[in-house]
Amino acid sequence: MKILFLLFPLILLLVQGAAGDIITCRRKGGSCSFLPCRYPTRAVGRCSSVQVCCIR
């Protein structure tokens, strides 16, 4: 049970850091994807450590 108190702040920090990049990607007109960007789109950044920002 004690480990939950240690993991909770870590999870909050990860979520907070990822939220800013998702907003930046959406402002550019892009979308976040777990998969690589397909042909008409191209990668212009990262939304999180596992997501890519794809823009047309």
UniProtKB/TrEMBL annotation:
Organism phylogeny: Eukaryota, Metazoa, Chordata, Craniata, Vertebrata
Protein name, UniProt field: Beta-defensin-like domain-containing protein
Coiled coil segments of this chain: none
Signal peptide (from-to): 1-20
The keyword Repressor belongs to this UniProt entry's keyword annotation: no
Transmembrane keyword on record: no
GO annotation, biological process: defense response
Keywords from the UniProt entry: Signal
Organism, as annotated: Junco hyemalis (Dark-eyed junco)
Beta-defensin-like domain sequence ranges: 21-54
InterPro entries attached to this UniProt entry: Defensin_beta-like
GO cellular component: extracellular region
